């Protein structure tokens, strides 16, 4: 259950051991937390001061992912810059911590644009994960290996016999279906509590939201971290053409990611300008929230969400064959999947050991370069043409967006939304594509409104002008 | 460059671009400027678009931008990156044209260059080239009121214009010094062809030369030099502007010449064509030359085009023949549309290369407003 | 009353204000930094085209309560005439409904949208009718099949469509301006005539023939008339998204007209406004009473900072904003300032994006103009 990094990771692992798998998600791939993160492939250096085990795992998995998922990792390198108030003692402790778990650290040159008083800078082997294509590749690999991936499909019930799980009941636009299963892995992230409730064993889940601000350009070639105890607003990640600045950590009630709280965004920006004094002038695109599912160990009391371990737990429910996995980090998703799959394989009496450390992920779909094509771009910012859309026809506008990346650039769909919707209308009809366009617009608008300043505020007004005056889109 | 990434994708720059309208292979300012830049920053992009060389660097795109994206200057960087993909001959020719103050020192004018040689170095076969008309004098008052900036073109091909400009300032009682003392260039030619390092070197040597003859007021004859020195030196070339009031000669005359001066002229019922160059529109705007004409009681008639197609040495390059010609023809079409009776006897334009080009296509003699005024004040 | 006026901004509100001042004999200088919104606008006058329930309205007069917030109904009636006359004087003919109701004009996506005053080149009709639409591969904003389906939904009527191959010189980077530039040439015109001859075969000659709005910039009316004659049916355009040729044609003709009438059209960034006039970033001072037509947040007259403070970019004054996005389009600047007047988007109270952008231009400029006339007559 769940087509995020955890769910697809577990399914991929089991599939390689010969287990027949089906992955189910209520939305598209990466619908939840996996699609709402900053993209950092941790070196582990962020955790050396607080959690040496996690730091070591990050470093090991970092190296492993570079081996097996090379096409999905950008080797940007990362820097840690210490603000002037951080004492040398802490810096030394951090360096020792890094060495203890084999994170390569070197003193680095000063970074352009960085606050000039932050003059102690170290390089580590951070990187960037291209989350969407990686998960799309896993899904492709699972399907090629005989598994199935059912997106836009909701789990609505489970049936048991003799204390063992036997069936799951699924609902989608096509209707309801029952699937016979021998085991279920609940990797629904923030929704894991709801899923587990279906077999009557609620989980002690705490949800934490983190806000991130997205800038339209690649401001720095490397990942830049604040060298200090982990806190709000301390990581800048370059991601293709853009940069993501994050993040915050506040307890939140619902699994669905809420729109960013404006005050939280302001605080994040204030914090950002300590590091990069010009950040307030950078061209912002949007702000968004991700929801982390955290496992609050029984008896851990009322610790703040930041103090709850980023480690993960696997829960075996009283109902045999039902497993839940909660917590964890993108960087260590493979390790997490391995440990879950070990338990599940054991339960199912499969003896084949884990393959994922050495088995490379399916190759990346040839990255599509429209530049030389004799057809115009529909999306100019991200250079998407009709030919790319055709590769993925069948999905909704939103699915097309996360696969081709149309509508993700500086104009946030102002000039391409209606073009792609027109193309889509030839497949699904005008009324359906109008509805999808409205969903696309409100999704884009939600992010823009959360960072409504500078040229982004101008862009938003321009978008409204074009939608309502130029295109005649419905105003509501 | 703070706003290099602020593009809204609104296409106002494309709407302002004169080349987009006449060159079907030109990708346009949005694609060549901010869109290219965004990928260049992300990918350390080696990929360049060959059509970038067809940009005239008129800067109308940049002037149009509502988000203050330095569109033209991003395109100039794009040109700089693209240079290495060009032929040796083109690079050599561009290097020479980027140093117009050196070309001016050659014993013959570009109009006398043998055609066979011109063709070999990829110079345009259908452009008019300027004949030599060097400075014949150089006033040196002990305490000047005004420094007149003698640009690369006027020093060697606009001797008459400089003389006229000085003569008029003298008539108004000012002591004028020509600056800088030796041949120099503001760097605009090099910058426009994407030779950014050359532009910087040329500009800083001019900056140093200007420092040697300090003046409190610096008048320019050509709006391109005005905009380059006043605006681009500090913003893009890492230089200070010279510590002087810098303004076009025309603006100075319009705001400083007294009533009696204008009363010496009576051009009533005469129509005078006026073309504010693209760079003039960007640097200051339109209207000063019209005011000057109106002060003589003649009727100014703006030609009403964005760019004539000369664009410094742009029209001299063989690969720009078609675009320069198309823009020249639109200038002619604009003139025909005006349907002026009687036909205008002259057209005022402050740039020497634009004057050549406009004359070539419209058949109306084009000259600097200073020279026009001088001729009116000294008939025969 | 002072004779000199400085209009800041050269979008529709700026040029309309300048035209009105000019017609009353004032000396007008326009100064602007950035192009203004013409290329984002098809040139139609929308007037509160949707009602409170956001349904299109047939007649602007259905909203007398809203209208009266700005002007009396009689003032409106003469205002619409003024608008049409000014456009006619710059060479743009317009169409209105004989009964004073909204016309219907399809958008680029095929939605029939109510518009009040429509430029002559654009297709508009009092009641929906079946149409023939011809377009070429490569005009990405107009997807004919999708257009026809939505037109059918919107009007209940048929749209015959004909997709044609692009001309040989087409490239994937062509924007509307490239197309328009092509059709403005003889070669382009001949290609177009021949292509439409073929495209029209088998279509219903009773239907008007619609083309994407790329039919030239300077020669539009001439070309459309020639095509109408050749094909024996109405030939009109459907406006595209930015760059919008309709707005560009109006902008260019209007600016040319004003400059020919003696208006100075300066380029510069206003950094200070007071009772004497304005100061530009480059140090120039312009004397005169000032009207700001700087266009609110969308036009760049207001800037929103990351901490949600808002600044009037021409004066540096802070403007209060609730933080609610819905209030951003109607944010008004310096309402109580006595040192300048405000028109257009920056005058607040009207959400131009939902209620008609050009309607807002007209409403705010006329309101300012009528109160100015009252001031003049009181002074007398």
TrEMBL record, chain B:
One molecular function GO term is: metal ion binding
- Keyword Iron among record annotations: yes
The record ties this protein, via PROSITE patterns, to:
4FE4S_FER_1 (PS00198), 4FE4S_FER_2 (PS51379)
Q: Does the keyword Nucleus apply?
A: no
Q: Which residue range or ranges hold the 4Fe-4S ferredoxin-type domain? A: 1-25, 44-75
Query: Which keywords, in A-to-Z order, does the entry hold?
Result: 4Fe-4S, Iron, Iron-sulfur, Metal-binding, Repeat
Q: Which InterPro entries match?
A: 4Fe4S_Fe-S-bd (IPR017896), 4Fe4S_Fe_S_CS (IPR017900), Cys_rich_dom (IPR004017), Helical_ferredxn (IPR009051)
Name of the protein: 4Fe-4S ferredoxin-type domain-containing protein
UniProtKB/TrEMBL annotation, chain C:
Q: Which domain of life is it from?
A: Bacteria
Q: Which PROSITE patterns match?
A: TFIIB
Q: Which SUPFAM superfamilies match?
A: FAD/NAD(P)-binding domain
What is this protein identified as? FAD-dependent oxidoreductase 2 FAD binding domain-containing protein
